[in-house]
């Protein structure tokens, strides 16, 4: 399969996660990779004495941008136009896919090279291109692996984090027709490079994402590690960038702050190897046409919610993903969104709050707070998780758990019903209570809940009963 990823039907997180938990190899791969990035990140962050000031500056710039996004987007549009680019506005995924597909077909292209675009994963652009007879070729090494495997990305930064070297070698042997390939990382990278070089030379249209876009100059910025982004943004004749509107920052000089925060938080490097910056087009240098597609797709709705809005500060560094104890066990596929981990648990429901799968994500967290500690733009993810949980409950989507909690609330609200419940529980627990503990749960939803928990049994006498009997005697 050479095309876009196959997307399984989205199921609620607990169901999807239980399948991932059964995959021991996947959990081992994810744990090993996230542990190594965590150690590197901690070391390079500790080198900067002004890290906290940088975080505060990053958060303030993003907050300022979000507060006047309407005005900055118009400024960005004007700057890009003056620099020779064309700006398109897309209300949702369908509109964005339609715009990009029409641009590609208008060039007569049947193949495009793509780089660095979580946003195009979000809108499932590859599926739309394939439906229009255009072959998308992912050029980021990890994205290419995921595409060749017919899977979805499972990490913001390392989309193939769930695969180890042996699995990648087997995939390349089969899909690239290289039976003698070893699992040496340099050999694997070389195989991908040779495969992609042909595509770079052939393709006339490239599609990229954007890390930032500066409203004052119209400059778009992409940071990456392999240089394939640079090839995409310079070699083809036409460059199409698809960008969520929240990537807009006010000034070119704001990049100074983010280019310190991003590489250290994401790959644990002092500086990423390649930073590509371009403003419109220039005769004889780079693409002859540049299109910027500005995507809303739920972002203005998120912007309108003061409690959820800080999620739009996210610079997609993935530091929160790497420290998340839930993500470490399940990997990214269980989130059914390209935004996995803690940021996915708050962003996906905001962008796509209607589906049952998205509604289950705010509960995919232990609320330990590790994500908040590492976030370079100080997003208080735990508070937003709680806010999103409250919205799910308010929509009546909490299911059996919500019903049980409402029932428990009523029992706890009245002493008489609480004592009645205690007496009933004492009778009902008899077949399963042993030595002060509920050993096993009866079949049904409680059985799954009880498999991972120890629950003390209701004592034979409550304190109040003991006190009254003592007074009587
Ligand atoms: S929420 Fe913060 S830590 Fe997580 S990806 Fe976004 S910027 Fe990075």
From TrEMBL:
Keywords: 4Fe-4S, Electron transport, Iron, Iron-sulfur, Metal-binding, Repeat, Transport. GO terms for molecular function: 4 iron, 4 sulfur cluster binding; metal ion binding. Transmembrane segments: none annotated. The keyword Cell membrane does not apply. Residues 304-326 form the 4Fe-4S ferredoxin-type domain. InterPro entries: 4Fe4S_Fe-S-bd, 4Fe4S_Fe_S_CS, FTHF_cligase-like_sf, Helical_ferredxn, LUD_dom, LutB/LldF, LutB_C, NagB/RpiA_transferase-like. GO terms for biological process: lactate metabolic process. This is Putative conserved protein containing a ferredoxin-like domain. It comes from Gaiella occulta.
